[in-house]
Amino acid sequence: MVRPYLPLKALRAFEASARHLSFTRASEELHVTQAAVSHQVKLLETQLKVPLFKRLPRGLMLTQEGELLLPVLKSSFDQISHTLERVGESSYREVLNVGVVGTFAVGWLLPRLADFKDQYPFVDLRLSTHNNRADIAGEGLDFAIRFGSGAWHATAAQPLLPASLSVMCTPTIAARLNTPADLLGETWLRSYRADEWTEWLLAAGLPRSFAMTNSIVFDSSIAMVEAAIQGAGVALAPPLMFPRQLSSGALVQPFDTAVSLGGYWLTRLQTQPETHAMASFREWLLTAINRRDADS
């Protein structure tokens, strides 16, 4: 698009005068004479063929055309100023605030953070963990990664990874579990979502009446799995998020049964525009997940 001639001096003189409603104060800001500011504004009015100010005995008042022009110019000059500041810095950086459910943070994200920083050094990443309850607006988050069905009010959700749940425990406990019914004699470690164990038991062929007679409730799968490693009981958690514990032999999966009640999602407010840093993080995240799927 070919832009018409932009009288930048005149536009700047008008914007400063309109903010102050004074040619004198505008001249002090711009470090020119009051006459020079008045002259530039007059040139702009001549070019536009409309008056932008009503000249009053004790100051200025914007006309309807001036009121229309001022916010556009102010926003444009603010953006130009901000961009020049960033370009002039030795290294441009953009803050990105991401809240991550602890299980995903420890089990998937943290081992890959070095790769993200290598690819996007301009992003000043600030991570906070949560137990799947994130207030994006209240906490000032750009993104929240959480577990669920993807249905959160006023939230745009991008699916990331499935999270099938399986029983995990120490080899010592596993040695006395011949069938799922043998779980009745163990301590059950569970999250605050009580239906997870119920659904797993049904998938394993046990009746709904099979009761959890002895259980401990955790608000974090990380703490729950650590308790399982310490021999406190049997945990129901996503093996995908605990590969190190399984590969080391600290935990085993005594049964093949798995049940899926949700997955991990990248979420943000629907009303929030995506920044460059947000787009970079989202694209990196999806690429890394697709790479994992291709390798598996």
Order of strands, widest sheet: 4-3-5-11-6
Question: How many individual domains?
Answer: 3
- The helix/strand series, from N terminus to C terminus, equals HHHEEHEHHEEEEHEHEHEHEH
What does the average pLDDT come to? 89
What is the helix fraction of residues, given as a range?
A: 40-55%
Any idea of the CATH topology of the largest domain? Answer: D-Maltodextrin-Binding Protein, domain 2
Rg estimate, integer Å:
30 Å
Uncertain stretches: none
Please give the CATH architecture of the largest domain. 3-Layer(aba) Sandwich
Net shape: elongated
Please give the alpha-carbon distance between the first and last residues: 48 Å
Number of helices: 11
Structural class: alpha/beta
Tell me the total number of β-strands: 11
* Superfamily (CATH H level) name of the largest domain: Periplasmic binding protein-like II
Main CATH class of the largest domain: Alpha Beta
* Largest sheet report: 5 strands, mixed
Strand content: 15-25%
Report on this model:
With 296 residues, the protein is an alpha/beta fold. It folds into 3 domains: 8-88, Winged helix-like DNA-binding domain superfamily/Winged helix DNA-binding domain (Arc Repressor Mutant, subunit A); 94-162 and 263-294, 3-Layer(aba) Sandwich (D-Maltodextrin-Binding Protein, domain 2); 164-258, Periplasmic binding protein-like II (D-Maltodextrin-Binding Protein, domain 2, 3-Layer(aba) Sandwich). 42% of the residues lie in helices and 20% in strands. It is built from 11 helices and 11 strands. The protein has helices at residues 8-20, 23-30, 34-48, 64-88, 102-109, 113-119, 171-174, 195-203, 221-229, 243-247, 276-295; strands spanning 53-56, 59-62, 94-101, 123-130, 143-148, 155-162, 166-168, 188-191, 215-218, 234-237, 263-269. It has a 5-stranded mixed beta sheet with strand order 4-3-5-11-6. The longest helix is centred in the N-terminal third of the chain and has 25 residues, at 64-88. The radius of gyration is 30 Å and the shape is elongated. The two termini are 48 Å apart.
